[in-house]
């Protein structure tokens, strides 16, 4: 191949890549338009009262096109599963940064919340509290949506378990990655609940993000202690024996801490009578000194 042909080939591949990028962008925009349109219709009329045919007509596409983008009607509202699954693979899987699973999950949640903030701030319309709360009302009051959300959470937990297991060099069916993934998915529920709870209280978007993040981190601290052994072993290549030994060490450490706390409480309880007696003596002493000062004052006046 001549140098000119080589340059033309490189240029052709660049144009092909650009064209592919444009196609992907068009697909994302179409998918988002369909989801946004369907969501608005669901919030206005109710999920069961809107058909897929009506959504297709409103979007000026065919029903077949709808199902090319979304496998079910419920996925029109619960449309973030593909993006979340990819985020979990990047955060937990082989080649991900050396950090604990909890830290990785917190990073994803922080980025999702920041992305939502940017979207709202860049929007031409203000964030409507009624519509925001209506979203949860529709979700919680529709059995098929609740079931779909539950199934989606289970699938995402499986993705997380597979990613962590691949990094650790163990089976995703081992108990450690399965329970770790289940616990970590609970942080998404905390963020979801916190957003709706604090949003109804009003305040700026920055204030909302701050209190939601605080709630999520409180929950993360609670589960971090239980996952630290798994996080330590996933930094390198683990084994079932390593996980078992780490788990037993953590259990022993937990028992030692619990024993130390019981001893401390017992010692504190034993000190309470002595402390009460000491405080009583100090009170009597101060009362005596106060009486002496009063008597001295009276004697001084009488002179």
Largest sheet: none
What portion of residues is helical? over 70%
Q: How many separate structural domains?
A: 2
Question: What would you report as the Rg, rounded to the nearest angstrom?
Answer: 30 Å
CATH topology of the largest domain: Tetracycline Repressor, domain 2
Coarse structural class: mainly alpha
Features:
single chain; 303 residues; 2 domains
Helix-strand layout with pairing:
Blueprint: H1 3-45, H2 52-59, H3 63-69, H4 81-92, H5 101-122, H6 129-141, H7 143-168, H8 175-199, H9 205-234, H10 240-302
Helix pairs in contact: 1-2, 4-5, 4-7, 5-8, 5-9, 7-8, 8-9, 9-10
Commentary on this structure:
The chain has 303 residues and is mainly alpha-helical. The protein folds into two domains: 1-71, Arc Repressor Mutant, subunit A (Orthogonal Bundle), CATH 1.10.10; 80-238, Tetracycline Repressor, domain 2. Helix content is 82%, strand content 0%. It contains ten helices and no strands. It has helices at 3-45, 52-59, 63-69, 81-92, 101-122, 129-141, 143-168, 175-199, 205-234, 240-302. Helix 4 packs antiparallel against helix 5 (101-122), helix 5 runs antiparallel to helix 9 (205-234) and helix 8 (175-199) packs antiparallel against helix 9. The radius of gyration is 30 Å and the shape is elongated. It starts with a helix and ends with a helix. Residues 4-19 and 293-298 have low confidence and may be disordered.
């Amino acid at each position: 191949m001549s140098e000119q042909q080589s340059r033309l080939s490189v240029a052709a591949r660049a144009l092909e890549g650009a064209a592919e990028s444009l196609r992907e962008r068009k697909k994302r925009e179409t998918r988002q338009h369909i989801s946004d349109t369907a969501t608005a219709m669901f919030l206005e009329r109710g999920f069961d009262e809107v058909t897929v045919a009506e959504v297709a007509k409103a979007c000026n596409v065919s029903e077949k096109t709808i199902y090319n983008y979304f496998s079910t009607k419920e996925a029109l509202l619960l449309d973030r599963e593909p993006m979340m699954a990819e985020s979990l693979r990047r955060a937990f899987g082989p080649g991900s940064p050396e950090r604990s699973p909890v830290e990785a999950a917190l990073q994803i949640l922080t980025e999702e919340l920041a992305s939502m903030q940017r979207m709202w701030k860049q929007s031409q319309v203000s964030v409507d509290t009624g519509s925001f709360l209506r979203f949860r009302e529709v979700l919680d009051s529709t059995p098929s949506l609740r079931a779909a959300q539950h199934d989606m959470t289970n699938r995402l937990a499986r993705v997380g378990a597979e990613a962590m297991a691949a990094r650790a060099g163990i089976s995703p069916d081992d108990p450690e990655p399965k329970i770790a993934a289940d616990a970590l998915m609970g942080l998404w529920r905390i963020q979801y609940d916190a957003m709706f709870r604090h949003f109804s209280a009003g305040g700026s978007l920055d204030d909302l993000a701050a209190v939601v993040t605080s709630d999520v981190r409180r929950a993360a601290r609670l589960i971090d202690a239980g996952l630290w052994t798994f996080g330590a072993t996933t930094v390198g290549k683990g084994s079932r024996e390593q996980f078992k030994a780490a788990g037993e060490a953590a259990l022993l450490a937990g028992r030692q801490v619990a024993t130390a706390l019981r001893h401390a409480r017992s010692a504190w309880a034993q000190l309470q009578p002595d402390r009460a007696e000491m405080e009583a003596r100090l009170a009597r002493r101060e009362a005596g000194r106060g009486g002496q000062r009063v008597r001295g004052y009276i004697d001084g006046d009488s002179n």
